[in-house]
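Exercise 3.2. Students should predict the tertiary structure of the chain below and write it as structure tokens, then compare their answer with the key that follows.

Predict this chain's 3D structure.
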Amino acid sequence: MAEAEPGLEALETDAPSVGIVMGSKSDMPAMEKAAKELTERGISHEIRVMSAHRDPELVADYAKNARLRGLKVIIAGAGLSAALPGVVAAHSDLPVIGVPLTSSTSVAGGLDALLAIAQMPPGVPVACVGVDNARNAAVLAARILSA
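Answer key:
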């Protein structure tokens, strides 16, 4: 992992502090709630759509370079297999907050996505908020940033 030169990490930049990623554009209505909460708190963020299954190299590149671009926390939302938060966490040492999302084909109201996010192997932690609760992911990100 690339390190900033001593003394440079405290410099103010225009880079976003939080990355919000989702598996598809259909996830946007749920994930916009995280962006709204971050905006209300004055926390800079970016929003990206990238699929862990259709664009795994893009997801890996995003996660690997997140710290270099100034991100401090990543919120990742995905439904069904919900692989996105885990793939991001596998390629970054930043805190990753997973948002399990429901969809028309969800099992048990999003339980499938929740379990996929919460049941990560040792060494690849992903925080998990409630189903469709991107707002809580943003609140958690804000708390991490202020710690």
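Discussion points: The longest strand covers residues 73-79. Strands lie at 18-22, 45-49, 73-79, 96-101, 127-128.
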